[in-house]
Amino acid sequence: MHALKGVDFDLNGGECVALLGENGAGKSTLIKVLGGAHQPDGGSLEIDGQPMVFEKPTDSLDAGIAIIYQEFNLVPGLSVAENVFLGMEPNDFGWVRMSEQKRRVEDTCKRIGANLSPSALCEDLTVAERQLVEIAKALVRDARVLVMDEPSAALTKKEVEQLYLLVDDLKSKGIGIVYVSHRLEEVERLADRAVVMRDGERVGELGREELDRRRIIELMVGRSMDQEFPAHRRQPGEVRLRAHGLSRGDKVRKVSLEVRAGEIVALTGLVGAGRTETARLLFGADERESGEIELDGNSLSLRTPRDAIEAGVCLLTEDRKDQGLVLGLSVRENFGLPNLESFSRRGWIDERREGQSFSGYVDKIMIKVSGPNQSAGQLSGGNQQKVVLAKWLERNAEILIFDEPTRGIDVGAKYEIYQWMNQLADQGKGILMISSELPEVLGMSDRILVMKEGELVGEVSNGNEVTQESLMAMAIGANSGN
Amino acid sequence: MLGVLVGLCVFFSFITFEEQQPVGKSGAERLVETIEAEFSDLGSVILVGRNGDEGRAFTESLNQRLGKDGWEVRAMVNGGPPDLAKALREAFEGNSTVSLMACEQAFSQLPLLETMRKANPAIAEMRVLYPKPYGWPNFLKTSNLLNVANQIAVIAIIAIGMTLVIVTAGIDLSVGSLIAFSAVLATWMIREWMGGPEATALGMFVGCLLAILVCGGLGLFSGSMVAFFGVPPFVASLGMMMVASGLAYMLSGGLSIYQLPESFDWLGRGDDLAGIPNAVVLMILLYFLAHLLMSRTIAGRYVYAVGGNSEAARLSGVPVKRILLWVYAGSGALAGLGGIVMASQFRSGDPKYGLMYELYVIAAVVVGGTSLSGGRGKVFGTLIGAFIIAVIQNGMNLTGVQSYTQKVVLGLVLLAAVLLDMLKKRGWKLSS
């Protein structure tokens, strides 16, 4: 297996090049080679015509390449200034020159328009602010190339806009930017060029004027795709899940909702609006302070997720690595975890039956695994989500809550997951889909709920009159009282 | 890790290689071969062995084999030089002679024998044969290997529970104190309630079972601290370590409890199954059960899942708190059982038992390849880890290394073993 096969890549100063590709296409490996975290087996690397060899991450940093990974490299318990200068503190014989450090951090923050206090602790910052700290860190180290891996993934709409402005600004200062993203609209907005990778190879490059969604998708998946969302036609039936007056602290306040048989209900809103928290109450992951939950007319007490799973409610978490899967276990063992009763007799697991059942899903939902004993941590995001889906399909859950089902997942796998959601709805299951991607909300759901600051602020049937703009207006409360 | 264990065994076999004197039945068989090769005719023989089981087995088997061959067995001696002298005098009384003295090696070189041969030419004519010595490592003698296994039984049994705890990303520091508490509690109950030295087997069993259950209960208490209140396992078990040790001293008044029946040492010193110590049989049995539990049952799968990622496990319907409770209760109960085995080995209960044992137990688990960050580990790995420790200790005892030096060596070897394992996992690269 080669993660990268003869990939050529070039970047000019003051240019933003988007690096695109499905998960597992080799983008991360390329970034890690640039950052000196991986060493290439062959090929060469030049900066300003000078050949370079990076043996460790600090080598590439010294050469002016800064990488901002999705999981930031910050020490939570240290301040902004300490993080920015970590490893290169201005000092006299080991004593840090505090005032100089503070002044330089303030200057840098001003340069990137960041309103950050140098003494604030990084653990108290928002995701967007932490990103700014990372950028400040890169600038302090005189980086001339900035590689950003999915920088907008965890940002709110407004923060993303600020990020765009910052990228434009950095470009104008002559810094070259490699921008890795799954979001095609931001590629259209930011990139001067896009390099597309697939299966470890560079499959194409698109200039500014050629940046077209359909063309990009075609290159990424290697086949033309007529639609991003599969067609569906449904007639929702009886109410299956009913929640009334769910509350927990400030995060969720008196939320009432219904999900019908054969219906996909989208729950949208800004990050932090309380959507995930609501889902966790419906799943028993947190205990509700008040409110009722009914499934098919029967009241559920739901003190633990186990209660919910037994009742037939399941949650596909947004964060698959930390919450969806036990990465150290094999895919088969993860798949079996909620289903062990059916694969066992008197507490003894029948691994053969478990493996056979899992293999069935490997074929049915096309999970790319080397075998049932492959460790779950080795899979790409899309395949991890499919393993999670398989475990709940085996459980035969009646209500499926998808929290950002396609975040960090490549286009091809996205489409397959959408198809499965439609198919499940056709079988009469109730589906609640939490999503920040408004095209996804509009493309997939029958009904849309909007949350803002812990409250349900809007409910609309999906139809022609609903637009991304009208949903966003509800989510930020622009025309409240409608 | 198995490689390290095998390497250590080879090393200690090599440096403890020595000339061995065959004893008992095997010595007799070896000697019969020599006699059959040296004597074409039959004759009369005196059989000489030391007092004790092995000496008797030696002369008995010789008597049987040579008698069957047609030898005339004049006398069988089991005892010291005076007994031999008496037997020889009787045998050579008058004109009677004996053609062969078949003896253990030590008797052939007695000055007394030399004197008698000089005094009496008839005795000088008598051939003296003993089993041919052979080269064999002291380390690899069956008795020594069984001794290694018996020495490590207590640590290995407790290490099963510790493996489970560490797989859940926890730690249990209380096991050393629980050994002492369990030993004291069981012997105290037998002394106070079961009639002390007159206690019946049932009484001893009930006393030991109660002590194990109480230790399991203390483990359950630590577990509930961890599961329900989120107390870090290190702190929860550190507290329990002090509590249990204190209780052991309170109950015993700081003194040994030895008012026990003779048969109390059945578990620690007995060997009912083919000469294998009962504690070792128990240990092997427990390892098989634990292996099956961890690899084949729902509970085992849940333990790995909780250690790998407790939140993901909870969201998949794993009863995380219940698993934690049982794992700590199990660790406590196994520590209790370890205490019973130790009390039985010494036939007494003492609050000073098990001091620092938690560290040896943790070392066995870690050397066995279980990750302290949880989610990974195998019980048989732990068994190998325990044996690595035991083999190092035993090997140093055999080669006469001082006990203080032993500690230093043991610590260094443990570090080396773990380092070797890590390097192997990384494909022999220094940094990953």
Task: Give a structural overview.
The complex is a heterodimer of chains A (482) and B (432). Chain A is 34% helix and 23% strand. Chain A has 482 residues and is an alpha/beta fold. Chain A has a 6-stranded mixed β-sheet, with helices on both faces. In chain A, strands 16-19-20-13-21-22 form a 6-stranded mixed β-sheet, sandwiched between helices. In chain A, a hairpin with a 2-residue loop joins strand 2 and strand 3 (50-52). In chain A, helix 4 (98-111) packs across helix 5 (127-140) and helix 13 (351-364) crosses helix 14 (381-395). The relative contact order of chain A is 0.11. Chain B is of the alpha/beta class and 432 residues long. Chain B has 2 domains: 22-132, Rossmann fold, CATH 3.40.50; 142-425, ABC transporter involved in vitamin B12 uptake, BtuC (Orthogonal Bundle), CATH 1.10.3470. Chain B has a 4-stranded parallel β-sheet, with helices on both faces. Chain B has a two-stranded antiparallel ribbon with strand order 1-6. The longest helix of chain B has 29 residues, at 201-229.
Layout of secondary structure:
The complex is a heterodimer of chains A (482) and B (432).
Chain A: E1 16-21, H1 27-34, E2 45-47, E3 50-52, H2 57-62, E4 65-68, H3 80-84, E5 91-92, E6 95-96, H4 98-111, H5 127-140, E7 145-149, H6 157-172, E8 176-180, H7 184-190, E9 193-198, E10 201-207, H8 213-221, E11 239-248, E12 252-260, E13 263-269, H9 275-282, E14 290-295, E15 298-300, H10 305-311, E16 313-316, H11 320-324, H12 331-336, E17 344-345, E18 348-349, H13 351-364, H14 381-395, E19 399-403, H15 411-426, E20 430-434, H16 438-444, E21 447-452, E22 455-461, H17 468-476
Parallel strand pairs in A: 1-8, 1-9, 4-7, 7-8, 13-20, 13-21, 16-19, 19-20
Antiparallel strand pairs in A: 2-3, 5-6, 9-10, 11-12, 11-14, 14-15, 17-18, 21-22
Chain B: H1 2-15, E1 17-20, H2 24-38, E2 44-49, H3 53-69, E3 72-78, H4 81-91, E4 100-103, H5 105-108, H6 111-119, H7 121-125, E5 127-129, E6 134-137, H8 142-167, H9 175-193, H10 201-229, H11 233-252, H12 266-269, H13 278-296, H14 298-308, H15 310-315, H16 320-346, H17 357-367, H18 379-398, H19 403-425
Parallel strand pairs in B: 2-3, 2-4, 4-5
Antiparallel strand pairs in B: 1-6
Helix pairs in contact in B: 1-18, 2-3, 8-13, 8-16, 8-17, 8-18, 9-10, 9-11, 9-16, 10-11, 10-16, 13-14, 14-16, 17-18, 18-19
